[in-house]
Amino acid sequence: MRTATITRKTAETEISVTVNLDGTGAYDNQTGVGFFDHMLDQLARHSLIDFTIRAQGDYHIDDHHTVEDTGIALGQALAQALGDKKGIRRYGECHLPMDDAQVRCALDLSARPYLIWNVDFAAPKIGTFDTELVREFFQALSTHGGITLHVDQLHGFNAHHVAEAAFKAVARALRIAVETDPRKADAIPSTKGAL
Q1: Which helix (H) or strand (E) holds 94?
Q2: With contact defined as beta carbons under 8 Å apart, do 178 and 49 qualify?
Q3: Residue 60 burial (CB count, 10 A)
Q4: Quick one: how far is CA 6 from the chain centroid?
Q5: Which residues fall within 8 angstroms of residue 186, CB to CB, at 6 or more apart?
Q6: Positive or negative: CA dihedral 28, 56, 33, 176
Q7: What angle do CA 64, 148, 169 make, to 5 degrees?
Q8: Residue 192 burial by CB count (10 A; 0-12/13-18/19+): exposed, middle or buried?
């Protein structure tokens, strides 16, 4: 089973993340940040990776530390569950439409973290959620998951739709990348022999 559990405790947050790469997209996410939970649910459902996430944070300050630290723990859990990455497809991509929004994602499970983020939100908040935290989450996920991650907004004016399209596009690309390649299930997908 390609599974992992990561716990992270700091003076600002306490996070627990469990993932199963060979799941069905089942999720049970409770971070204390409603919109963020909705986005994590989308990430699980559309990647077919099972997520169980619990977070407690310093909400009296804002949601920043909770969102960022969840991204850190989730990235670490994905990297641990992937192990040596033998047999995975490694690359994934998706053009995801959602009403007015279209977001493109391309990613590489390369162990070389890099984020290209070309997403512009027309509003600073979605409900009480700061839209700038979407990027913070994906920066943490990329850095701690060892993911080269490119996210580009092609269209969109509704901030909720743009954010949700971004999470779903990353999810669908991740789904492809973590899948076992039946033509090379016994090999590391790199000429170097390691990722």
Answers
A1: strand 91-98
A2: yes
A3: 5
A4: 15
A5: 86, 87
A6: negative
A7: 70
A8: exposed
Q: How many residues does the chain have?
A: 195
Give the side-chain half-sphere CA count within 13 A for 122: 11
Return per-residue pLDDT of the chain as tens, 195 residues: 899 999 999 999 999 999 999 999 999 999 999 999 999 999 999 999 999 999 999 999 999 999 999 999 999 999 999 999 999 999 999 999 999 999 999 999 999 999 999 999 999 999 999 999 999 999 999 999 999 999 999 999 999 999 999 999 999 999 999 999 999 999 999 999 999
- Both tokens of 24, joined, read 């069905």
Q: How many CB atoms lie within 10 A of CB 10?
A: 12
